[in-house]
Amino acid sequence: MDIVLPSGCGNAPRTDVVGDFAVNWAAGEESAVAEWLTEDAAWTLVGADTYGGTDAAAMTGPPFKPERVELLSIITHGRLASCDGYFEAADQRLAFSHAFRFASTSKTAKIAEIRSYCIAL
Hints:
Low-confidence stretches: none
Helix content: 10-25%
Mean pLDDT: 95
Shape: globular
Radius of gyration: 13 Å
Number of helices: 3
């Protein structure tokens, strides 16, 4: 799978976490995604439903396996972060945006809440 990440200042520790999380989500790597969710995490797929806990990783995966993932931006500040991008395979393309709230400001804090917007193009 081809992966393109935005270049950044490298000063925000969560940038790598958010980037890895988004790529693992797009690739359907449920166990890697679940590792970053708190036990009581809430993951809302806007326009669909809200899923809870680490099991949300299995319920929120992408509709197809991508050949290419590109993250256009990653923004982090304190307990909050966001990223957007798209992934594609053959003639399918899905644009996405994730908004994160981490459980605390600690570098190792897990994700307590995610809102995901996904649009098939």
